[in-house]
Amino acid sequence: MIEDYIKKKFSEYYRLFSWRINEPKEIAKREFGFLLFKEKIMVRHKSFLNINNLRDFIKTIIPSDVYYSSAYYLKPEEEMKNKEWLGADLIFDIDADHIDTLCKKEHDKWICKNCGYTSKGSPPENCLKCGENKIQAETWICQKCLEKAKEETLKLIDFLMKDFGFKKEDIKAYFTGHRGYHIHVDSKEALQLISDERKEIVDYVMGIGVDLNNLLNFINEQTSGWTKRIASAIKTNSLKSLTKKKIMRELQSIIKDKAVKIDAVVTMDIHRLIRLPETLNGKTGLRAVKVDLNHLEKFNPLIEAIALNEGEEKIYIKEVPKFFLGEEFGPYKNEKATLPTAAALLLICKGKAELVN
Questions:
Q1: Which of 65, 89, 97, 263 is catalytic?
Q2: Least confident span in 27-36, 119-128, 224-233, 256-265
Q3: Which of 7, 46, 134, 182 would bridge 114 by S-S if both were Cys, CB 3.0 to 4.6 A apart?
């Protein structure tokens, strides 16, 4: 019943708003993937000649999630070994899951499936009570963690433009519809980069392998790259009174702060399927939204990514913290409430609520 309701709402959205889905560059060379509601089966190796064919297919099957390849293929419908890779956009994934935020202690929790022990905050690798690694995490989205994800996104864009020389018009930003952002770099300079070369970019923006000893000789704001970034955060004179050990500790702290927290695997994967903009995220019912770079700082996904504004639903809510989606709601625990459709759909998609007949 819950799955039927979600699918019904997704069907309503695509019937009304499939026109929002824009045609990806060279659509006929892309592979598309669709996660179905039924048994969460992934249908892959699909291709479309034009955007109308893609929109019609989405309206017909009503998927939970829609993806397309960052790669371009000569034969996108073939199995991977026969596709004939032609190149790939440079993709970055920034997710609140990879960022330490204080708010996680307020709204995230985990439970050990072995002994039942539960606690708040980010999940450990092993249970703090029994030591087993059968951990199930329950994450939430809030304005604070989404703001942190946006800060990391802005840092990344700064790296891409200042340190790598990519043009602003080659960089596209997208809210994922859940807990973060995707950055796409559509540039002929990046198109043919292999996985190892993309890893070098990953290491650089994450501050991995920065030569601290060498940096000490060049810390001034007239340089570029990491040396300039560190120089802007620290005055060279302030280092003179410190021991080398303390200097190194200070530099490591600055690098940790300036580095970007990304999912390295996504960038290195030259066959990656990435979420299609203006489709719905099956975990939230929110839209994956393209965000103009000039608007990114002011962008509020918990307002601007709402897909369905009309109507309301009466639901039974298990337990959720106070949350914001266009307005504030909650907290709720084992109670009934009538909420706007978007808020009800969010809770139902996250398994936190059920419809009341």
A1: 263
A2: 224-233
A3: 134
